[in-house]
Amino acid sequence: MPLPQRVAAIPDFVPRDLKDAAPGHRFQLYLENWQGQNGTAFAPYKKARAQGKDERATFDQNCACVLKDLCPLPPTSQKVLTGIRTRQQALIGHYGTNGYRITTTSTAPFATGLGNEHPLENGFAFLTPYGLPYLAGSGVKGILRRAAEELALDNKAQQSGDWTWLDVWHLFGFEGAVDKGSIWDGDSVLGKAFARDLELTANHADIYRLIRTLFGGAKEGARFLDVEQHGAEQFLQVCLVGKILRRGLQCRGALDFWDVYPNPAGGKLAVEIMTPHFGKYYRGEDTPHDSGAPVPVSFLAVPAGSAFDFHVVCQATRLPAALQNNWRKLLDRAFRHAFEWVGFGAKTSVGYGAMAIKKPNAMASGALPGAMMTTTTGAATAVTTTVVTTSQGDEQIWPAATLTFNKGTGEVKASFDGKQTAGLKGEDAQAHLKSALGDDRWNKLKSKLEMKNMAVTVGKLGNSWVLKGLTEKS
Length: 474
What we know:
By secondary structure, the protein is α+β, with helices and mostly antiparallel strands. It has 15 helices and 18 strands.
């Protein structure tokens, strides 16, 4: 498919070899072979067209070659990246007890901005003017909000100390304009859970504080502040069944999320590949069927094993007294849930954007890989996790295994890198695994039937692998 003509105006002071240009600059401004010989296509693509070859396949193969040239971060870009990350670490310390920092390592490739327009058809999010990959703070907030809502969904008693719907509103803001998939969507899982917890939410100690904030003294909010007439419950019911009132209400949350600048492992980006099987159908050229040949499509990503720093500032004076003392603990839980279950960036449904972090007591496991180091400056805590595969005799650590639960047999298996253990049987063995996972994650494993990115210890028994234990992971 022909590329649109685009002329890149490169100043004289920019070296023509572009070896020291940032990846984002080369990808968005100075893309090699962007024009081709006549300004309409890549040269290999034109050659394939003339020879009657599969034009689409040749186009994608050429894209992969071009992307590989963009991956390395030159010395100047690495210096800029180090400066930005160091500056963020210094700035968060100035916020004292209102600052929050958590550092983790990705266990899967990270991709973002794939929907951005680009002649290669798969974009990527680079921050101007640095030309470096980044994850916008608004994106972090959206993921953390979803993680918090999922945790509130599990808090059926809406007990304080754990995530409640009121905590979500106080920390992330009140969103009344979003319908589909939100708590206002009665057909969604979140919507059903919110309706179930409506009475408990109406009885929350801080509900009337939120209502006063939302209406800001407007007369229409007076009836919802009447405690004797159960005004809070009326307010929630009106919001749940209608759009007019809640869409006009706005309230910002107490948390501010900063942009995230990943430090790519090995000092370079990676080229990932997806293989859609129904390309002609998606392009409107054919009906959907199973006989189509999948064509690899290349796109940029930050490789697994890269470091990510997340920074959050809390405007604590905007919070109720109880939440002022508890917001950090809640945010810890939300981040851990997002790392393990939600993911950051694009393609999270197929495992991209997963992170790993370990509990402080992992320090006691000395010989185990992935030991955690914790440093504290003021109120900001940084956690760095490194996962390494080790083996000793017939015993191995699988750092990112997938646990599966069979409802029929009650067996638990672990799989990693094409290998799978035999089913874990017996009440004693399962009780040991349940204790290691904790009730929360054990119940999730039984309900979702799968849990990814778990570090486990396995042993060789004959020609089979057996699951021996869990290398604890948050």
